[in-house]
Amino acid sequence: MGEIRNQVAVIDGLVAPTIVLQNARYLHSVFRDWRFGNIWIAGDRIVYVGAEMPKNITNTEIVDVAGKTIVPGYIEPHVHPHQLYNPISFAKYAMKTGTSVMLCDNLVLFLSLPNKKAFSILDSWKKLPTQFYWWVRFDSQSQLEHESEVFSMEAVLEWIERPDVLMGGELTGWPQLMAGDDQMLYWIQAAKLKGKKIEAHLPGASEKTLAKMRLFGANGDHEAMTVDEVEARINQGYAVTLRHSSIRPDLPELLKGIMERQWNIFHHLMMTTDGSTSTFYEDGIMDKCIRVALEAGVSPVDAYNMASYNVAKYYGVSNIHGMVGTGRFATLNILEDEFHPTPQAVMAKGQWMYRDGEEVYDWPETDMAQLGQLNIDFALTEEDFQFSMPFGIELVNNVITKPYSVNLHLNKGSVVQNEDECYLMLLDKYGHWRVNTFIKGFVGNVEGFASSYSTTGDIILIGKDIQAMKQAFERLKQLNGGIVLIEQGEVVHEIPLTVAGCMYDGTMEQLIEVERTLIHVLEQRGFSKGDPVYSLLFLQSTHLPYIRITPKGLYDVMKKKILMPAIMR
């Protein structure tokens, strides 16, 4: 209450604003035009936008922004903040290019931490200049043992109760909902009663499926891959988020199709990079999406609103985000002009982040160890490397897999000689079980490869040589998580993932370099699918066709059955 009184006192001239942006040309998201005025800021809020200057400017920082253009801070509405990077490293990097509000996936936090611990961490992050909002997941994206205990009624409802959770989903497990899962339906209804949106995950869905899911409570979807699929979703009443990601860079073609059909629907659209891997972000995040929109001929007002106001309005937070207006957070991007969306200066919650290309904000230290650490306390034995499956998993692309018949050729009982074929093991991070099969189409010549980055946080081992696979596993243990490539007894490349076993404890700039090297060394050895990080992630993802390796065993997605159960160790 005292803060509000202080803000009103600024209007009355009793208190000086902290910052005034004078002679501002700014986007008015509701009038949908460019206006001129002065922006008064007190603490973290905008307290006035208009023609007047404050009467009291004692110790006020007055910045003349004549000739510049000011837009709201960009909002990324669909972030997976654990694609090797971690939430804080991604937030710091995103801030540089004007993305200062993020709606984040809670899956890793949910699977790796008790709610009390996770909530304590989220509450501590509220002090940061980046505004974090969250989803609440209703399913694991894989086949977990005791999933009903992990995704318990109590645990999910505790997340739903949080005011910083704005969305339920994404609903990758929607087939079980349609098959009669009333628990998921209850969670959807509970979330909607709390004012949350429900985000579907419906790639390739028919009109009838879209209609059914809309009736079940889905509000939005980000999986349209063609302009016809955009139309189908709009027809069924969905809010549509257009995707531009490392594995689905669909935005240019989607916008081209919308422009060609002259649809006046931009007020109903949002944009996302959908948790891309780090190298995709070298040239920006939401500013990159805005740039694509401008290049497609979208009007600047619509392009910026799709990355700010439309998102804030849809998720019910336009009273504090997405607009240069009184009462909103002073989270602003100062641009050369509306045709250059990468900002020259960034302000978040009334604090300068970047000015003239230089970081001017001293981020507080954040202890990433609080997200947990992977501690592997078991060893692999010869018995663990028994591979006798008559079929394995073939990668068609980053997303699609299919079964294939194994015609095994071994050298000295341990080395796969077949081209483009390797051993594949999924190993419980606690050492309780394993699933052994073969993989085709990942790489042509890798001796030993280990990754603790996976959908469930369990260990993936791939290779042609059992001894090299064991060495890669041992090195991963030493790192407390990571991605490791071994050849001839030596580490060819590694990425330490010391945060919860799946995230890099370093800057995005550093991660981009080590991830680029990973891609390069795998491409040298036959990887041709485009994004090896997503290939690793999707090996377990049972919302994608056709066959996956999961903690329960080898799983046929279409038939919804275990083809070979996991082996207890």
Automatic annotation (TrEMBL):
Phylogenetic classification of the source organism: Bacteria, Bacillati, Bacillota, Bacilli, Bacillales
Native organism: Caryophanon tenue
GO MF entry, a single one: adenine deaminase activity
Domain (Amidohydrolase-related): residue spans on this chain: 69-352
SUPFAM superfamilies noted in UniProt: Composite domain of metallo-dependent hydrolases (SSF51338), Metallo-dependent hydrolases (SSF51556)
Name of the protein in question: adenine deaminase
Family named by the database record: Belongs to the metallo-dependent hydrolases superfamily. Adenine deaminase family.
Adenine deaminase C-terminal domain segment(s): 399-560
Entry's EC annotation: 3.5.4.2
Record key words, sorted: Hydrolase
One Pfam family matching this protein: Amidohydro_1
Domain of life the protein comes from: Bacteria
The reaction(s) this protein catalyses: adenine + H2O + H(+) = hypoxanthine + NH4(+)
